[in-house]
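Sequence, please.
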């Protein structure tokens, strides 16, 4: 949760070692936690293998409640590999099982629904995603009321979807409401608020309101640094988006500095071989080219292309981006 993935990996592997020879189901759960860490580290294929092994054991041991959570992680590993159909089938299976066991209002059921909606949004099926996000918002309001952080999270997801579809006025209203809820709920700003500010800044970026986006991103970065440090995914997301703003407003030196800090942070979090590292390299390469440094740009883009060829399927659009 703190973004300390290397330490999490060490602890997860130690847990597996300690469980060797223990009850099969307990060892499977330790392996499932390791799979979740591998997924956070961007090792989606390795995570898939670990999680499948865990799920097979849990199914054999008839530990169906534990298996549902592992199935969600497995679906995410497939989604990260752009295996949309397989991931969707697992998300739907998990959601149906959790809803049957706990009901629609249970936190685990709602997590599964949000994960399914996220896949639909990421794969461009915005109408289906909107239906699920609206259902989640209705449930959050019934359970927690209009002014609760869980309601704010449901508003953020729906608002981000409207940003994707270009319904920017509606996106801004929902995101502003979510931010207000969090400001009034917590005694001090935290990383959850920072995440909401980044989502709101995205709507401003779509409107080409770079000044408004920059102000939100500066605040988000300051909050995230104080709460979880700069080498955390939320802080790095704020820094990355600020680099984009700086490049579009002519501050090329500032944009380069931000991109290089993002790159250093991502390498510290996930290691040198990760899709987010490749994406930042590609962005920095484009910036270097636009500032008249083609040799540096080519070298960096070749490195990004090499990573993407190693990590992504051959028909992935990010490969086309690097080749272009």
């Amino acid at each position: 949760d703190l973004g300390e993935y290397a330490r999490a990996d060490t602890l997860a592997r130690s847990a597996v070692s300690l469980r060797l020879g223990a009850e099969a189901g307990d060892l499977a759960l330790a392996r499932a936690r390791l799979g979740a860490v591998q997924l956070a580290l961007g090792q989606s294929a390795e995570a898939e293998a670990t999680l499948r092994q865990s799920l097979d054991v849990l199914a054999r041991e008839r530990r169906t409640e534990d298996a549902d959570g592992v199935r969600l992680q497995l679906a995410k590993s497939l989604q990260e590999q752009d295996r949309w159909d397989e991931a969707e089938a697992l998300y739907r299976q998990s959601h149906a099982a959790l809803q049957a066991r706990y009901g629609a209002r249970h936190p685990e059921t709602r997590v599964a629904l949000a994960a399914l909606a996220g896949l639909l949004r990421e794969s461009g099926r915005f109408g289906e995603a909107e239906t699920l996000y609206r259902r989640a918002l209705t449930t959050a309001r019934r359970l927690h009321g209009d002014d609760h952080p869980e309601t704010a999270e449901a508003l953020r997801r729906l608002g981000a979807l409207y940003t994707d579809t270009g319904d920017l006025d509606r996106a801004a209203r929902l995101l502003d409401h979510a931010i207000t809820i969090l400001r009034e709920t917590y005694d001090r700003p935290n990383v959850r608020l920072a995440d909401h500010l980044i989502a709101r800044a995205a709507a401003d970026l779509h409107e080409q309101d770079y000044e408004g986006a920059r102000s939100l991103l500066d605040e988000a970065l300051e909050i995230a640094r104080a709460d979880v440090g700069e080498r955390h995914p939320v802080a790095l997301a704020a820094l990355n988006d600020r680099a984009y703003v700086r490049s579009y407003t002519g501050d090329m030196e500032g944009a380069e500095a931000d991109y290089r800090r993002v790159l250093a942070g991502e390498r510290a979090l996930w290691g040198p071989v990760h899709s987010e590292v490749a994406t930042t390299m590609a962005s920095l390469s484009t910036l270097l080219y636009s500032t008249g440094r083609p040799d540096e740009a080519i070298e960096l883009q070749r490195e990004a292309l090499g990573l993407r060829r190693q990590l992504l399927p051959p028909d992935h659009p990010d490969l086309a981006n690097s080749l272009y």
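The radius of gyration is 21 Å.
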